[in-house]
Amino acid sequence: MFSNRIAFSNPRPIDTDVQQPTVQPVSKRVRRSWADNLLSAINQVACYDSPIPLMDHLSQVVLEVPNYDAIFDLKFLDKLCQMQPNISKPLSRFDSFTPYRNIWSVANMFACISPNLRVNCTQLDESDIKIVRKTIDNCWKYRTPIFECRNEKCQGTCSSCRELPEECSSQIIHDLFYRLLPKNRDDSPFLVNTFLPVFTLTGYITQNIPVDVVLYDALESSIIDYSKKSKFELKGLLMDVKRDRLLAAALRDSILALLAAGLVMIVVAVHSQSLLYAFVVILLLALSVVGALGVYSLFTDEFPLLNLVTFVLLIAIGSDDAFLLKSNFPNHLNEDTFHTFLTHTSFTMFLTCFSTVVPFFINITSNVIVFRCFGLFAGVTVIFNYFMVVSFLPAFLLIQHRHLDCFSGFKFPYRSVFSHLLYVLLPHALIQGRYLLMALLSVVAIGGAAITYQGLHLPEYNPLQLFTSDNLHEWYDNNAEKNFEFVSSKIALPLTSRLVWGVEPIYSLSTFRANATSPLRSDPFFALKTASDVHKIARSLEKARQLPFVNHQPKFWPERFLDWSDKYPCARGFLCCNMSNPLFSDSYLDFCLRNSTSFLATSYNDTPIFDNQTFAFVGYTAMLPTTLKYNHRFSKLTKSFEMLEMTKPDNGWWAPEWWLMSTWFDLLSSIVQDCLSSVGGSLLFVAIFAFIQLKWQALAAVVTIAGVICTSSAIVTLLGWVLGVLEAVILVLVVGLSFDYTLHYGAALPEQGCAEHRIREATSKGVGPVTLAAFTSFLAGASMLPALTHAFYQVGVFLVVISITSWTFSTFFYLPFLSITLPRQSGDCSYCEKTNQMHLFPRR
Fold first, then answer.
1. Among 421, 519, 629, 645, which is disulfide-ready with 492 (CB 3.0 to 4.6 Å)?
2. What is the CA radius of gyration of the chain?
3. Mean pLDDT across the stretch 446-475?
4. Is the pLDDT higher at 361 or at 764?
């Protein structure tokens, strides 16, 4: 495609036997100096009078400067101008694919605006900058007329174009305001966009030009290096290479799960004073994953990247049970104490486990196949972990107690200090300050609910974030539309409706396999066998054309067929295609429909459908153009799709012409529906589990869980979360994970004694396992914060937030709340007197 000089893998030597004319050897290729010089001169000119074709689809670099005045600093412009020679090597690798050679920056634009006839930005001086600034300041107030004059409807013929000053009417001025400078001149810091002479990867793909992503890696590295060298504040890049880099980054981030496991292992070892016990806990987590993978493979061989975050969640969830078992293991071991210990802990772990599993399995009902796969894998993993913990781990503790005591014994130096703080001082503080704590946390929860209601919303600018927000490519997707005029027009692609008759829709045949779909079949209930059938489909098309948001004047083939039929001359002894003529018979219709295609033009957007093997007439399809435009915002997209639904034909179906539009709309719709159903279902199951364990104290537990949900949601909302695909999955887990610590305290609540005594005892017994479980969840989440991918980072943030809020509310809200809900006891409590004596006069 590119050259007749090809690097063969088997170089062929020149045959010495053939006769060659005698010529003087040429040691050096003679340059076609005039052609090369002309091409080089043309390439150095950055100015243009007509729009650059497909300019919006070029790769872009966004820089940040202190303010508007900074873009007129000659030193800044000189550095910006030198970007091209400094990144020329990686740029030259795209020369075979791209017709452009210049970087369109504000420096080159200023050179074109200057009346001093500068070829490019290398010739700029202070006099040019003064003139250019005066011109730009004057034209800024005409920004809106400039845009209107150059849009598709006007094309320079509107009355507003005649009112523009001559210096503001050029294409360069339009592109400077429209593409390179932000919407607001008073912004500080001030953003500056730059267009590279290289299309994005998507731009090449849509032109059927194969380009290796490695070329973009080299280009990005050179841009970053030059920005550091020139002390530029590089903010964003557009190359459309995020999806191609996701797998490598996700695998790299999954290694952070090993760091999380290591940190959890250290905490378990310190608490249990046994490295062997810590190793066994990590081993059980690994075996749970292996077992879950075996079961998961029976359902599907597809493993979405979202499933990788299950490893981190399991580390946070699975370590809780290890602390509970170790803390409740009886000091005086016999058959009765072991039976009591195992009965109590296994039932508590069952409730906490399945309160987490329920939200996972509810995801299986989702319309999004990635949610289903994640729910299946995560749910099965937690179930495997539960059965391993209630069987293998107690057996190991029993063996360790009897035969492996020699492997334990190291002491944590500050253990006694922490024990006194948690087991003695904390219960006293909870009882004395219960009303203040409840009031403060109630205010926090109510405020959190208001913040969540007002601030949590679906994505508005970046449909599918793959990397963390500080990633250069994600920054561009999150912020470009807010700052530059052209982006909203770029994504505002026209919405069209593809109308189809005679073809059955394809249905999914598997819950977890994306490619398991029904075969493409013709609709046996559709046929054009009578004149009334043709009239019916023609009326449907005419009705669709007359919709206000369509207003499509040209008739479609069925309508034109009716006009053609009315003019068809009929005579006895010949087939008659005039359906209003008495000589016409429905048996002629098939021939007439086929025959009409020889006289009536058909196309991809207006054509009958035939069977490829039998050439039978099976259906018809038409593309209906509309005035509707695509938009990422769900509220606007919903209105558009509600109107598009009005185009649905009788006995047929419709779909958007571009499948990504309908995919994004369906995804957002599923996120809203799945969140509501999953959170509601999870709350119902958690309330049932709470009542099973806590009886009538379940009301306090449900109120506490509601406080955790409101506060956690508010914190992540303040951190900038939007309700995307990943966030929808994570927020569903809030219900189950917020219940664990509350249930541990409730399970530790004694059945006898006054309210104060029971709260003190529940605090003393439960605060250790709950605090350690929260701490390990915090560590597991914190270890994910250096992640590159959005999924791992958000899971890390979620674990940090949920561990803090759940521990805070279960300890400082649920326990004080029990002082109100627990029944009163008349007289003195003998349990409290005994406990107080032990705390006030401890044995030495």
1. 629
2. 36
3. 90
4. 361
